[in-house]
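Session log. Operator J.P. requested a structure for one protein chain; no other inputs attached. Running the standard single-chain path with token output.
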Amino acid sequence: MQDHADLIHPDTQASVLIVDDDPTNVAVLQGFLEDANYNALEAFGGRQAMEILNQITPDLILLDLMMPELNGFEVCRLVKASPQWQGIPIIIVTALDEIEDYNKAMECGANDFLTKPVQLHLLLERVNEHLQTGLMTKELRQNETLYRRLIESFPDAIMVHDNDRLTFVNPAGMHLLGATRAEELIGKALSDFIHPMYLDIAKDNLLRMREADRATPPMILQFIRMDYAIVNVEVIFSPFTNQDQPAALLVMRKVDSPIPHHVTDHDSPNQAGGSHEVKT
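Structure written below.
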């Protein structure tokens, strides 16, 4: 057997659930994975696999397809349909070698497909690969959750202005504009909430942001809330990328200070004959 010490999982023991109705196959895979520093769990059929999953969530599943009662296709569908388990990588290990079997397994949500007799060194490489990918995906999701919590708890209003429309508003932003739900603001134009006297200023600063590709200095604009109350708001426009498209990130806070004289004297777009649309 080829030395596989260089492929041993570097972190704490990851658990791999082996699902196969052939005890010999299970024993071979279990011994090999344990030598590679994995915690190998065993299930001698689809039903037993589901019972184990209800008690333990493994890091990866090696799944045979041809099993009585509950076959591998059905197990794969059940796992991938569950929010609790759908992130578990599934590697099919089967004697079936037709293209139709491969396609069906992929449609059921399998992550990989190996045919028996499987090369153990190749199997270990695939196990390592999918576990590392799963770990990175899990970390990304955790980071996304953390960032979203930070933004949602941030005391300043945060909004994303994309393609001339608001596409994200945090709770502080909803409060600032007098909305009770984000849906009241999402999809609306930023210009719907800026006092007409300050639309040109907003447009000019968005243009400067795009040209310089950096955040604008703080400025004070007047916004019109959903209850038609007028509030003075300090705004910073920052360049932002949303789904590979240029956008603007707005950080805003209500201020009690009066509007500076040179701002209050600014001509309105109506007087200048300009467009009221604020372009990202």
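Operator note: DSSP finds nine helices and ten strands in the chain.
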